[in-house]
Amino acid sequence: MVKLVSGAPVRFEDTIETVDMHTGGEPVRIVASGYPQIPGATILEKRRHAREHLDHLRRMLMFEPRGHYDMYGVLPVEPDLPGADMAVLFIHNEGYSTMCGHATIALGRYAVDTGIVAPVAPVTRMALQCPCGLVTVSITVEETPAGFVTGAVSFESVPSFAFALDLEGELPGLGRFRYDIGYGGAFYALVDAGAIGLDLADTPLDILVDAADRITKQVSATVPLEHPDDPDLAFLYGTILTDGGDGAERPSRNVCVFAEREVDRSPTGSGVSARIAVQCARGLAVGTDRTFQSLTDAVFTAKATRRDHVGRFDAVRVEVGGRAYYSGRSSFTAEADDPLGGGFLLR
Questions:
Q1: Distances from the Cα of 33 to the Cαs of 98, 108, 284, in angstroms?
Q2: How many whole angstroms separate alpha carbon 292 and alpha carbon 129?
Q3: Spatial separation of the C-alpha atoms in residues 236 and 83, rounded to whole Å
Q4: Residue numbers annotated as active site
């Protein structure tokens, strides 16, 4: 069945300029200019304002004909935390996420290349304010005769923790399954795909997506989440299906299905942070390197750098590293009489 999800015709007379990047194939559309200023005393207030008053612009940028079902974007906003060099909101097909590792990796290069932070070789550091908190970003910078060249990026995220281990659920067609819930800037259910009869290498993607989405909906309906910092952070963002490995001997393959059945092409930075937090809850030592791989064969490195606490939870700080690349620049407009100008999705 073909399903048309259409936004209302959009009234927008300006032009929105964007810089497009990708991390492991996962898109990052960064708004460079033209977006209305988003008011709010805190970043979570800005997030609420954007959701309630400017959501037509999210649909315009993320949906067809300018985007696609799995598009992802970044809205720079004014920071409200002392020491923050930059603050951002993250947008996707369903709304506004609290953290995004693949976008953070792209933003590291973007911030240096556009002069938001001054380049310092061999490593430039910046503080990025995300809805979940302050994230420290390190950008590899090489000084050449032609200027500074940015490369690999890593970030140390907000405290990550295991919310619950070895929970059980049951779904028709999948049977009983065991799962963990980890937080790495967003909450995820973590499920071994093999334990529910799926294979990340051979099972068709639509079947993986359907299974992950069904798990997300059931867990969301049956497990109340909490985050000590703010109730706005306490929601299940998605489900990560893994190959059952831990990333020690070889990269552990996973696929993250988040928001409205959106598929992450990267290993998922916040998801990798959640996986490391769960491993640490089971005894993984701080400083132990792990690697994680996505369906595009992109690899993120990860390790817990130090122990921490958030509310009643034992937590760790996780460092995640990867590469992002530029893919283009765009100028987006909308004509007043365009019935599909507000964006639509075919599914």
A1: 22, 18, 44
A2: 25
A3: 29
A4: 100
pLDDT at 146: 93
Beta bridge partners of 124: 139
pTM to 2 decimal places: 0.95
| Stretch (H or E) spanning 242 | strand 236-242
Q: Are strands 324-332 and 313-322 parallel, antiparallel or unpaired?
A: unpaired
Q: Are residues 120 and 169 in the same domain?
A: no
Nearest one of 203, 202, 190 to 247, comparing CA atoms: 190
Question: Does residue 167 form part of some domain?
Answer: yes
What's the rounded Cα separation, in Å, for the pair 210 and 176?
Answer: 16
How do residues 95-132 score in pLDDT, each as one tens digit?
999 999 999 999 999 999 999 999 999 999 999 999 99
Token code pair at residue 159 = 């405290």
CA distances from 161 to 40, 106, 214, 272, 293 (A): 29, 24, 24, 12, 21
How far apart are alpha carbons 129 and 79 in whole angstroms?
A: 7
β pairing state of 73-77 and 26-33: parallel
**Residue listed under structure tokens 């059945």:** 261
Give buried/exposed letters for 251-260 (b at 16+ CB in 10 A, else e).
Answer: bbbbbbbbbe
CB contact set of 17 (below 8 Å; sequence gap of 6+): 31, 32, 33, 34, 329, 330, 331, 332
| Whether residue 176 is found in the same domain as residue 307 | yes
Domain of 124, in residue numbers: 4-156+326-332
**Domains: count for the chain:** 2
Strands (E), 102-186: 123-130, 133-144, 147-156, 161-171, 175-183
If you search the block for the tokens 């122990």, which residue do you land on? Answer: 307
